[in-house]
Amino acid sequence: MIDPLVNELAKEYTGKVKFYKLNTDDSPSTPSKYNVRSIPTIMIFVNGEKKDAIIGAVPRSTLASSIDKFLQ
């Protein structure tokens, strides 16, 4: 449901932000490491440190705002 939106944002932010997707079935230890309790969860990292998490299917504007606050 959120995949097309993330793909769209990845194109829009090319060169500014790197987007990665993780299949939790293939990597079950990673969600535990970051206390992911719901899917989808989008995490924002800055220099390898988790700075924010967006949980659930949210509007495009919410995701863009969350990303933009770390690009300034």
Automatic annotation (TrEMBL):
Cross-referenced CDD domains, in alphabetical order?
A: TRX_family (cd02947)
Alphabetically ordered keywords of this record: Disulfide bond, Electron transport, Redox-active center, Transport
> One Pfam family from the UniProt entry?
Thioredoxin
Q: Which InterPro entries match?
A: Thioredoxin, Thioredoxin-like_sf, Thioredoxin_domain
Q: Name all Thioredoxin domain ranges.
A: 1-69
Name-wise, this protein is Thioredoxin domain-containing protein
The record lists the organism as: Brassica cretica
